[in-house]
Design goal:
Elements (H helix, E strand, L loop, with lengths): L2 H10 L5 H7 L5 H11 L7 E5 L5 H8 L3 E5 L3 H10 L4 E3 L13 E7 L7 H11 E14 L4 H13 L1 H6 L6 H5 L6 E13 H9 L2 H4 L3 H18 L4 E14 L3
Parallel strand pairs: 1-2, 1-4, 2-3, 4-5
Antiparallel strand pairs: 5-7, 6-7
Length: 256
């Protein structure tokens, strides 16, 4: 299987786990949007925002709650169906960051929540620059579990053995500023710390929504999930887990 075929297989796998994705994936604290506004130099209220790779609308709903005039952009039909079910009344357009279905200079802010790594930067960055108005902001962010915490480090070690290629790929998220630099974009980055307390079963549901797990055959997927459930139950006998997140936000503002 070629790299492109593997990429498409992973991307398409989200449709089968859209409900788990919407239910179990971590949300984002309000401090994220405070930081976005500060680095973008403008309020989200009244801003025309395109939330690209919107998935089930987790970030789209939060952007709307901040007063943004937001449109979700999502190519996957299963994820789009969940988006519409979870956020009735929110606008959604079928499309991808590599070919944005919007006019030149038509958006104030373009956001990627857990999604920029699904694009080809040589296409998605020029597309963002084309669609953004002068002084517009391009933003990307990721929730990443803090590997300095022992139980997270242990879980990462187990999963990196099971999915070495996936963990190599998603360990390179800090390259986003380098990917934007050739297009004349000066970036600013902030890392926020936050946490959520969930059950072991919730952690497993989150893991099941990861593309590299969803794309497995049913037997292998069950084996991986049950093995991880057993390890977490051993680490957390009361069944409750505090997940410590590092939320990495990168913002670039286009020239006026």
């Amino acid at each position: 299987m070629t790299d492109l075929q593997e990429f498409r297989k992973l991307a398409e796998s989200f449709g089968s786990v859209a409900a788990e994705y919407d239910r179990a994936r971590p949300s984002y604290p309000q401090e994220l949007f405070d930081g976005l506004e500060r680095l973008a130099g403008r309020s989200l209220r009244g801003a025309r925002v395109l939330d690209v790779g919107a998935g089930t609308g987790i970030s789209t709903r939060l952007l709307a709650a901040r007063g943004a005039d937001v449109v979700g952009v999502e190519p996957n039909e299963g994820m789009a169906a969940q988006f519409l079910a979870s956020g009735p009344g929110l606008a959604l357009v079928k499309g991808s960051g590599d070919e944005l279905p919007f006019h030149d200079r038509s958006a104030d802010v373009i956001t990627y929540a857990q999604a920029f790594h699904w694009t080809r930067p040589e296409r998605s960055v020029p597309e963002a620059v084309r669609v953004l108005r002068p002084g517009g902001a391009l933003a990307a962010w990721w929730n990443v579990l803090d590997a300095d915490v022992p139980w997270v480090r242990d879980a990462n070690a187990r999963l990196s053995v099971a999915f070495p290629e996936a963990y190599r790929q998603f360990g390179e998220l800090d390259a986003v500023a380098e990917q934007w630099a050739p297009y004349g974009l000066e970036t600013a980055t902030v890392v926020l710390r936050w946490e959520r307390r969930v059950t072991v079963d919730h952690v497993i549901a989150d893991l099941s929504s990861r593309s590299y797990v969803a794309a497995l055959g049913a037997g292998r997927r069950r084996e991986v999930l049950e093995g991880e459930r057993e390890a977490l139950r051993s680490a957390f006998p009361d069944g409750r887990v505090t997940e410590p997140y590092l939320l990495d936000l990168t913002v670039a503002v286009t020239p006026h």
